[in-house]
Amino acid sequence: AGRRPGQGSAPSRMFSYRREGGGAPGRAGLARFLARHNTWGFVATRAAHGKIQGAPYGNCLLLSDGPVNNSTGIPFFYVTPRDTTVADLLKNPVASLTLPESDGNFCRKNVIDPEDPRCTRLTFTGQMVTVPTEEVEFAKQAMFSRHPVVRKWPRSYEWFFMKMNIEHIWLQSW
User: Fold this and answer.
1) What's the pLDDT at 77?
2) How far apart are CA 46 and CA 71, in angstroms?
3) pTM flag (> 0.90)
4) Cα(101)–Cα(20) distance, integer angstroms
5) CATH number for the domain formed by residue range(s) 27-172
6) Domain locations along the chain
7) Among 58-62, 93-97, 101-105, 150-154, which is the least confidently predicted range?
8) What whole-number distance in Å separates Cα of residue 104 and Cα of residue 171?
9) Which pick of 4, 17, 98, 140 has the fewest CB atoms within 10 Å?
10) What is the rounded distance in angstroms from the CA atom of residue 151 to the CA atom of residue 69?
């Protein structure tokens, strides 16, 4: 109810919210803001390849938590098995995702480096899973509405959609 045409419906087990004005107050509101407004994040895995097998390994990946007008709080990714991080996830789906406040008002207004501890960071941990068939259309809308250029990425790379089933949330907000 109340959805705009082309907005898509949220898959089951997701929540939606609209950010109006200042958004939800407090830590939950700040976490939702970071999930909504970050277009990339740092995904850490346990390496499943070569000489670094078992060691921590990470990479920056594009993400979206839903179409522009329908944030869900669930991070979606458009990935290829050629990416070492994705190859790791296909063998062991446990991962963490860190979202920085790189575009936040506090850091920008005060000319503070995004890695300064005073800039907020949100970290999710959980399982990275392939998006089920019934959610693929929503994942497409989520990624392509925020990252239109990915439609032009080489098809030969066997792109597919993953999402994180979040188990823990850690917000660093000093």
Assistant:
1) 98
2) 29
3) no
4) 19
5) 2.30.110.10
6) 27-172
7) 101-105
8) 14
9) 4
10) 20
